[in-house]
Amino acid sequence: EDQVTQSPEALRLQEGESSSLNCSYTVSGLRGLFWYRQDPGKGPEFLFTLYSAGEEKEKERLKATLTKKESFLHITAPKPEDSATYLCAVFSGGYNKLIFGAGTRLAVHP
Amino acid sequence: DGGITQSPKYLFRKEGQNVTLSCEQNLNHDAMYWYRQDPGQGLRLIYYSQIVNDFQKGDIAEGYSVSREKKESFPLTVTSAQKNPTAFYLCASSSERGTDTQYFGPGTRLTVL
Questions:
Q1: What are the chain B neighbours of A46 within 8 Å (beta carbons)?
Q2: Beta strands in A17-110 (DSSP E)
């Protein structure tokens, strides 16, 4: 069965302390991996789409990378405003739908 | 500004009531989706529609119904048959069904009294 697992469930960082979030997946026919940011009580905000292993995308302090089995969201020198839940989703060619992970709750403290 | 709107932001339902959640988009997207979000779980697909007057069940369609009479609108009805409806409901749209990026609305929080 297609599955997406995000780790850790929660992460606490000091401002400026860089780290990475992991998204591992097992899907039949990867056709795209998506990262979203979600603030409490709001809808997910699109960040990145990755389509093939080796692909990388950057936006401000965030950088997303993709391998054949997992994706990483690297956060460089985070600020308190980066605090949010980060969601990973994979488009499964086998099931023809997006499969979401449970998310990583990130808290960045001054 | 183009985007997706959902209303109401908060909704309270009594036992045995049907309630309807609104979703409107002005992105000229063909595909629209409804997801349910529960704490500690990934988003789960309720229904999706690729074109007007056509929609398909997702993973957890039981107790829900939808319609797609206009390209811009995709309302979701939570019926009394849905036994555990308390959740955060998210509407999304994409230009086409498939690998195109899905963009989300702000969500509706439904609580059963």
A1: 101-104
A2: 19-26, 30-38, 45-50, 56-59, 62-66, 70-75, 84-92, 97-100, 104-109
Interatomic CA distance for residues B19 and A52, integer angstroms? 42
For residue A24, give the amino acid letter.
S
pLDDT of the residue at B1? 63
CA–CA separation, B52 and B70 (whole Å): 6
Give the SS3 label for residue A82.
helix
Find, in chain B, the residue whose alpha carbon is nearest to that of A104: B40
A17 residue type, one letter: E
- The 10s digit of each residue's pLDDT in A4-24 is 999 999 999 999 999 999 999
Give pLDDT, residue A94. Answer: 74
State how far residue A52 is from chain B, nearest Cα, in angstroms.
13
Q: How far apart are CA A54 and CA B81, in angstroms?
A: 46
Which amino acid, residue A4? V
Contact status of B27 with chain A (Cβ, < 8 Å): no
Structure tokens at B29: 């997207």
B10-26 confidence digits (pLDDT tens) = 999 888 899 999 999 99
